[in-house]
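for ur thesis appendix - Erythromycin esterase family protein. copy paste whatever u need, i formatted it the way the template wanted (i think)
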Amino acid sequence: MPSHFTKQAIINEPEIISAIKQWAYPLKSKADLQPLFERIGDANIVMLGEASHGTHEYYTWRAHITQKLVEEKGFNFIAVEGDWPDCYRLNRFVKGYDIENKSAFKVLHAFDRWPTWMWANWEIVALADWLQKHNTGLPANSKVGFYGLDVYSLWESMESIMQYLKKTDPAALIVAEKAFHCFEPYGQEGISYAEASQFVPVLCQREVVELLKVIQKKMPTYNTDHENVLSAEQNALVTVNAEKYYRAMVEGGPHSWNVRDRHMAETLDRLLKFHGENAKVIVWEHNTHIGDARATDMAGEGMYNIGELARTQHHDDKVVLVGFGSYKGTVMAGRKWGAPMQLMQLPEARKASWEYLLHTAGPENKLLIMDDFAGNDALMETHVGHRAVGVVYNPEYEQYGNYVPSILPLRYDAFIYLDETKGLHPLHIQPHGQQIPETYPFGV
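the 3d part is after this line
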């Protein structure tokens, strides 16, 4: 996630607060989301954000919206900010194709890449159980899928490729093993490979590109489950783009961020094509990915994101971007990369931030439909700080960072503001006598 230490803009607080009071919809229950579903209309790409990767309410509200879109608007699949191999296993489970794993808990508990809590949590168990139940009895082409868009899983993707090729193509397996062996000296962490690439710029680039070429050439001959063929190609694409991403890490600047979001956007387009001409997708990612980067200071740094790419590559009326935010509470995060997850305090939002203004307009949950604010110069022309909490978080530094200068009505099509939120419920934390959260199955 990008760092933001930009000074707070001078804003017209009274005018912004007045506009929020005039146009915001009270959000007291699920039924109050009707204006959002009307705004979604016939869109076929709905992106649901989050201001942190560790907040219970972001998951449960998104789960409810997802359920409604699947049941009432015929959405075909969910795509998330997660690794392809892990999410593909969950996809097979919710579609009833996994005969070994009998529970969503078991499948999700195997999500062991840090930050584990992002997807290995009780909130996602509830969603997965609902998806499996929804899919039961449906024909294969009507089952709702669950896929990962991210680029981090270089080693896991190569292992998945080799497992697939052992069964289908021993000759191509030799190429996959050559690529895998190229990465072995650098261990399982991308940073080791990234550091080595400073001295030998190409390293394993040739091997992963050759692997992708071989798989793409032989795909028509793979007479197996058509979705497994898609997965094999996707894992090969992940290896190519992950290798590129880790090399870009050491260069600094926006390049590695753009490699990652371009990969996610291209994966999304491949999934839409795979699901057919009228496919509809629900995307779950952080606000920094789904909120249009052109409405933030990211654009000035040369960065773009999947939300911007979706808007520019698809018709605006086919894409709806929904942001989320809160004023205070608790959040699940780690103090540094790889650190133990812990429940942290989420302090009251910084003064003159969007979260502060939304709270000042009234300490109740709110739904904003951005079309209502068109023409209001105070909202449409001023960059105001908008909180963004990553998997690495230190509350004591809250006032010095964690805020992305944003024109909120241009960044999103709708925004869900939750005044006070709490941390989600990870599967991998095992306190004495751990109980399933009382919110299971999911609810708001």
